[in-house]
Amino acid sequence: MNATRDTEQKTGNVREINGNGPDYAFYGDDFTGATDTLAHLARAGLRTMLFFAPPDAARLATLGKLDAIGVAGAARTMPPAAQRKELEQVGAAFAALGVRVMHYKVCSTFDSAPETGSIGVAIRTLREYCVSELVAVIGGQPNLRRYCVFGELFAAAGAADGAQSIYRIDRHPTMSRHPVTPMNEADLRVHLQRQGVENVQSIDWRCHAAGDAGLEAEVRRRLDAKPDALLFDVLDDSHLQAIGRVIARYAAVSAPLLAVGASSVAQAYALARENPAEPAAAKSPATPPLARARGPVFVLAGSLSPLTEVQIGAAQSYLRVELDPLQMTGDAASDYLAERVAAIAGPLRGGRNVLAFTTRSPSGEGGALPQLAHACASLLQKVLCAVRLRRIGIAGGDTSSFAVRALGAWGLSYLAPLSAGVTVCRLHADRVELDGMEVMLKGGQMGDTDLFEQLLDGNG
């Protein structure tokens, strides 16, 4: 059986069967990035829900009509076999809903490797559930100061509210030294080729100067060569809007269409839906600001990025509790966790804000290691069993993914923005003590210097 016929059998004629389903679905390869995508779609006026596993029909029936759905996962930490197994379930679920755009959401720095969180594995797996000939890779997210030029990725370093410098990603002071997936190649075509996506064609930024017709002609010319993916340069929002129109045109003809990239994919999709004649105030409903926290706040920082270290140092309103990575993952981890939980829960019961953070081990290992992320998840679960809280924060992509999944909740909805790339969400759970809790998730590279103080004070 050829690949096209196999894909058609997997997807079926689902759009006719599920015409009322969401048009857009995304899988976030970690939880922090997934909440950023949720925020962009919600702020664009799309009714969106983020789930922790593909939802069944009964769950969807209780929520009514949704414009977009997401699944927050942990694929960026997975080896290829586990990643394929997870994404096969996701791809089948999204195809069964009849979505037009299937978005594999990656970190805006594209950090991944052939054996850990492979974007190549994701493309090959999800491609089996997509009919469109276009596999679009969007290489930048300007609002986070991530840019793609002639196929090469550049990213800012430092707090969003301070002086930032732009680095080619293989010279970035943090991402080039990531403890699990260091970015040592700036050319995203080569980066993806190393992960098994052999033929990646580039649509460079100069194509936008020719307008929609010129861009479409270049896309058509590249697709005639039957590439595995098209990589689009991005320098500003006008580029995203033009790319969004390309995606919309191809998805309207043949769907699902696979798109790969950061939240810029959702931004492109939303921008392409805008009506230029509509008043600006009507295009996206105003988002209520985040109110001041009612009661003590607990923050768990499993990220050891330089920015998170600065944010921890600026968190003057918190009692700080250190977490030793070696003891959290060693032979006596159970006893150590019990002692740390008691040191955290007691002050929280007394009304104090607490920030627990992993320290750098003597070997230099960071908080992104999977075993440490699992230990942090266990600690959060035990803290929340010991004391009931209204608002929490979790720093670190891997830590967030494992920690939120360990709570036993089923989803998140958008509540309010906090900082660029950082969102506060409402937790949805069948357990009454968890349902409605406010949760901030942030990646290591995201947020202002005083982010944890903002989590207390709100931005109203």
UniProtKB/TrEMBL annotation:
It is an enzyme of class 2 (transferase). The keyword Nucleotide-binding applies. Residues 299-452 form the Four-carbon acid sugar kinase nucleotide binding domain. Gene3D superfamilies: Four-carbon acid sugar kinase, nucleotide binding domain, Putative sugar-binding, N-terminal domain. SUPFAM superfamilies: YgbK-like. GO terms for molecular function: ATP binding; kinase activity. Its EC number is 2.7.1.-. Signal peptide: none annotated. Residues 25-268 form the Four-carbon acid sugar kinase N-terminal domain. Keywords: ATP-binding, Carbohydrate metabolism, Kinase, Nucleotide-binding, Transferase. Pfam families: NBD_C (PF17042), SBD_N (PF07005). Belongs to the four-carbon acid sugar kinase family. This is Putative 3-oxo-isoapionate kinase. It comes from Paraburkholderia dioscoreae.
